[in-house]
Amino acid sequence: MPRGRVLQGQGKVNSYFPCSFVATLAQFCDKERFSAQHLYYHQFSLIMGLLLKVLLVGVVACVEINAHGYMISPAARNSAWRFGYDTPANYNDNELFCGGRQVQHSRNGGNCGVCGDPWHVSKPRPHERGGRFGRGVITASYTEGQVIPVTLYISANHKGYYEFRLCNNNNPLARETQECLNKQLLQLADGTGTRYYLDGNIRGKHTVYVQLSARLYCSHCVLQWKWVAENNWGICPDGQGRMGCGPQETFVNCADVRILRKGQRPFDSQNPGWKSYANTEQDYIPNAKESMPNVGCHSNI
Q1: Average pLDDT over residues 138-152
Q2: Beta bridge partners of 196
Q3: Topology (CATH level 3) of domain 68-299
Q4: What does the alpha-carbon distance between residue 209 and residue 100 come to, in Å, rounded to a whole number?
Q5: Contacts 24+ apart (CB under 8 A), 180-184
Q6: Which of 2, 99, 173, 174 is buried deepest, with most CB atoms within 10 A?
Q7: Banded pLDDT at 58 (limits 50, 70, 90)
Q8: Which residue intervals define the domain Chitin-binding type-4 in the entry (predicted)?
Q9: What's the whole-model pTM score?
């Protein structure tokens, strides 16, 4: 009799079921069960991988949103509302980055508005003279030839460098231009040149000292802060790919300031003749009989 298992039904032997077949069937079922479990875990891993990627993209996006900055002193047009000036509130005042890297370099050919607005926006752009935030409110007074402190707030450090420019813009009907600003690329007070390279460990407030020309004074000038970051990968001039090469994010702020002649007394722009701003060396309150100082706009450069 062949080896096998007797299947009984109603007391009768119906057939023989080979043990080898039973073993094969069990093995097949185990394999199918294993394959189903493997497929389940494979699909689960794919789903979790996709969710993780979405989460990482969200984290990166949040980091980029927070990686901005603005000029505190002199208070820029976009941030003056934070410090009590009668200017419109801009709750995105740390996002004057020319519309973003893609907008600046892909859509606008690398161009940016004079005060950080996207280049393609119709003039006057919001932060330029005559725009919503370009009210011409003076937020600091200095003296010709003075070393001035410029205080910035950086919410996340993208390294790169700063440059500071000044445009003599006494005509209330004229908008500042980049050509005007380029005429006065300011030197750093420590004599190291015109570019301040941002230390990667700096966060929050920090101050850069800039030298004003001894031959420039004005009743209304525009101080421009430009920050070219180094947070994107690109191709360097030597053909190698590195972080900080190629098109980068650019942040730009403008502040309205006054530069007095030496010996000239400061006065408040919003209430002339009453008091000076805190950025001047001494507060000045003229008496009622004293005439207003004759502030001209002049440059020998």
Answers
A1: 96
A2: 162
A3: Coagulation Factor XIII; Chain A, domain 1 (2.70.50)
A4: 28
A5: 181/114, 181/222, 181/224, 183/301, 184/213, 184/216, 184/301
A6: 99
A7: very low
A8: 68-257
A9: 0.67
